[in-house]
Amino acid sequence: MAEPTGGLERVTAAAKQAPGRGLPPVHLWNPAHCGEIDIVIKKSGLWFHEGTPIGREALVRLFSTVLRKDPDGIYLVTPVEKMKITVEDAPFVAVRVDQEGGVLKFLTNVGDVVEAGPDNAIRVGADPQTGEP
């Protein structure tokens, strides 16, 4: 199998090598900063690469597992690379909410379920043009 050449291909290959079925331990990885990659997460939650929407949900899900927020930005992190991306608002968007036993559980655009609480505060932003939430 040929070695991946581009930044996106290298990140994809490295992310696929993450052990197990859980989330990769990005908090333990400390590779050198390798630059920026032209990935933008729009306010709507859509992911773009080089101006084109990433249409493969499985690829977006894979990338979402190697995102890390550092004090100076949001990065795709693998054991060997750290590439800064652009996030217009937040990397994940709630697409559904359910109440279970008085607890709000949100389904995100990448398939994660997040329970609202002290560690996951709810934030509602207003559209600057319309004022709508």
Strands side by side in the biggest sheet: 3-2-1-6-5-4
What is the 3D form?
Answer: globular
Q: How widely separated are the two ends?
A: 48 Å
CATH fold topology of the largest domain: duf1285 like fold
- How many domains would you count in the coordinates? 2
Structural class: alpha+beta
Q: What string gives the helices and strands in order?
A: HEEEHEEEEEE
Provide the low-confidence segments as ranges: none
Structural features, described:
There is one protein chain. The model has no long low-confidence stretch (mean pLDDT 84). The chain has helices at residues 7-16, 57-64; strands spanning 33-41, 47-49, 52-53, 67-70, 73-77, 82-87, 94-100, 103-108, 113-115. Helices cover 14% and strands 34% of the residues. Strand 4 and strand 5 form a beta hairpin. The chain is α+β, with helices and mostly antiparallel strands. The protein folds into two domains: 7-15 and 33-87, duf1285 like domain (duf1285 like fold, Roll), CATH 3.10.540.10; 92-133, no CATH class. The radius of gyration is 16 Å and the shape is globular. It has a six-stranded mixed β-sheet with strand order 3-2-1-6-5-4. A three-stranded antiparallel β-sheet has the order 7-8-9, with no helix packed on it.
Key descriptive features of the protein:
single chain, 133 residues, alpha+beta, duf1285 like fold, 2 domains, 6-stranded mixed sheet, 3-stranded antiparallel sheet, 2 helices, globular
Can you give me a brief rundown of this structure?
With 133 residues, the protein is α+β, with helices and mostly antiparallel strands. It has 2 helices and 9 strands, in the order αβββαββββββ. It has a 6-stranded mixed beta sheet with strand order 3-2-1-6-5-4.
